[in-house]
Amino acid sequence: MAGMEAATTGLASQKRKKAMKTLFDRQISFHQTxxxxxxxxxxxxxxxxANNDTPHYKARDLDFRAALRAAQGAAGGNLxxxxxxAGHVDGGGGNGLxxxxxxxxxxxxxxxxxxxxxxxxxxxxxxxxIHYEASLTFIxxxxxxxxxxxxxx
Length: 153
What we know:
The chain is built from 3 helices and 2 strands, in the order αβαβα. The chain is mainly alpha-helical.
């Protein structure tokens, strides 16, 4: 009888550990995905700033909300290209966020055709950097909490 109780207790403990691991993995996965999308957006914004004086350069941005939603739906993997025919070549290598990248609306036309507005770009860059840092802070807090739970200190 005592052996059966120990087996039941052990099974319940394993289920709790698995549920805890799954919850922790989902939370970490969400923040990892958010960091990847934010990093891609930061690269686009940096490219816009770097091309401020390039004639006919069109400023680009990423729809963060839609990209994150789609990346979460892809279960943490790379987003796959849709193929409608067996002869299509596998896209591979891409990060799948190109579908959520668009051109920024022109606020003031420039003589050289450039659509980069440095005030908008600097503001978006700073905002994205703050969001990226917040995601890192959340991950750091989760890891610190997990460490505290494991060590009991």
